[in-house]
Amino acid sequence: PLPLPLEHQLPPSPAMLSATRQLLHLRRPAAAQAVRMLWRPAQMPAIEKAPLPHLTVQTEAGSTYLVSGGERLSPWHELPYRSAAGQDSFTFVCEIPKNTTAKMEVNRDVAHNAIVQDKHKSGEKAGKLRDYAMPIHWNYGLIAQTYEDPHIADKLVGLKGDGDPIDVVEIGSKPLATGQVHSVKVLGALALVDENETDWKIIAVSRSDPLAATVDSVTDIPDVVKAIREWFRVYKIPDGKPANTFAFDGTALGPAAAISVIEAAHADWKRIYTASSS
Asked: Which residues contact 29 (CB under 8 A, 6 or more apart)?
């Protein structure tokens, strides 16, 4: 496995992992469900804030897993929501490295939510691996313990969510590997409307990137925001789909509003995935 350089590494102690799992009240399902449903650990109380554990990446048959203490962890459910780096710091899992085209994403259906390359769902390419028609110029991934509920309209946008963890565009200077985990500083958000669904794009920067010391908001990076907005507006056009649109006339919300969006997505995750809501 490939060690990951994280800002908050802890020694890879089995005792630490065991203690963490006791805190989570985590129990693995005995077997895969016969019917299709989103995989989850047994319902558990959320760890709101904690140092990031020591992690390694394991790749097997095209699937990328996170491993700690010899056991696989879900990048979606089993990492802390907030890191210990600051109030505006959240746990980011990179799915797609910058300047690449393979559409990698957390698989919601399989055990431990491995990161895999997405496949086309319909048309003449149905079943084939999906690549963007153009490279994405930023690291792209998700915030742990978040969910955009496809059954409830977003309070700001008025449209239902896309059923995925909330997306992050990480604008740091370095490509991050698939599966790499970082604490990120939130700068703002764009409210993408994708096929009549709310699909928030949080704009953030890794706390370990030099840019984090000089940028506090999307207002500091107008050209970057413009490029992100244009990329997400047109990226599906080569697949024969219409251009995406944005709420708020494409204006990016600032850090405080973006953090409120993340907190709402975390609340939806807690409502569905934790014991406190059962």
From this structure: 39, 41, 42, 111
Smallest Cα–Cα separation from 66: which of 106, 20, 24, 108?
106
At 10 the pLDDT is 41
Residue 2 has pLDDT above 70, yes or no: no
Measured CA to CA, the distance from residue 240 to residue 114 in angstroms comes to: 29
In this prediction, residue 88 carries a pLDDT of: 78
> Is the model's pTM score more than 0.90?
no
Q: Give the sign of the dihedral formed by CA 118, CA 122, CA 125, CA 127.
A: positive
Return d(Cα 229, Cα 171) in angstroms, integer: 13
Average pLDDT over residues 56-68: 94
Alpha helix positions (H), 139-254: 222-234
- How many other C-beta atoms are found inside a 10 Å radius of the C-beta of residue 195? 11
Q: Residue 39 pLDDT more than 50? A: yes
Beta-ladder partners of 82:
49, 90
Q: How far is the C-alpha of 1 from the C-alpha of 20, rounded, in Å? A: 22
User: CA-to-CA distance for 139 and 100, rounded, in angstroms?
Assistant: 9
